[in-house]
């Protein structure tokens, strides 16, 4: 009986030392898991109905960073946001614009609503990327005035497109992916 008790104590102390030595995930690694680079077709928000682009875009680019100090976001994640922003911009110029020109009536309206939702997506990515740059610059003690000006300009565009999306709430929206 004494051997079993001694063996149990040794086993428990060995297990507890393993648990104590387990790495605790940093907020950086949690962000990396919460935000992942995706193909445009997997994160586009243009299909469906107009009116909820802000929430949909935030779900892609803002919500994964809730309760995260943006100054701690790693460079790869910031690069991934920019890559996805560029994909949304390419969809706008290379796909939406020609599709809208070629369509008419309800089809053109649905594509235009999709383009507005895509602009909200693109601009949300832009503002989030700039917010990360701002947080990193502030943490480093660097000048932030040029970043703040860019944020203000992009936020103004974003606010305009969100208002247009909300004005068209309930209308059909069509994507190009």
TrEMBL record:
In this chain, the stretch annotated as Disordered covers 158-177
Signal peptide start-end: 1-21
Protein keywords:
Signal
Q: Is the keyword Signal assigned to this protein?
A: yes
State the name under which the record lists this protein.
Answer: Small secreted protein
What organism is this sequence from? Answer: Heliocybe sulcata
């Amino acid at each position: 009986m004494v051997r079993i008790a001694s063996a149990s104590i040794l086993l428990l102390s060995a297990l507890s030392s393993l648990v104590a030595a387990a790495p605790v995930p940093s907020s950086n690694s949690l962000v990396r898991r919460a935000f992942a680079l995706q193909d445009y077709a997997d994160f586009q928000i243009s299909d469906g109905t107009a009116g909820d682009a802000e929430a949909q875009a935030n779900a892609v680019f803002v919500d994964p960073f809730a309760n995260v100090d943006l100054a701690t976001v790693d460079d790869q994640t910031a690069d991934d946001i920019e890559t996805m922003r560029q994909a949304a911009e390419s969809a706008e110029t290379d796909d939406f614009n020609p599709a809208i020109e070629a369509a008419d009536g309800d089809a053109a309206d649905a594509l235009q609503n999709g383009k507005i939702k895509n602009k909200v997506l693109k601009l949300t990515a832009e503002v989030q990327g700039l917010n990360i740059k701002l947080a990193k610059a502030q943490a480093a003690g660097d000048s932030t005035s040029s970043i703040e000006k860019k944020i203000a300009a992009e936020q103004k565009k974003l606010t305009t497109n969100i208002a247009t999306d909300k004005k068209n709430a309930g209308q059909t929206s069509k994507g190009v992916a």
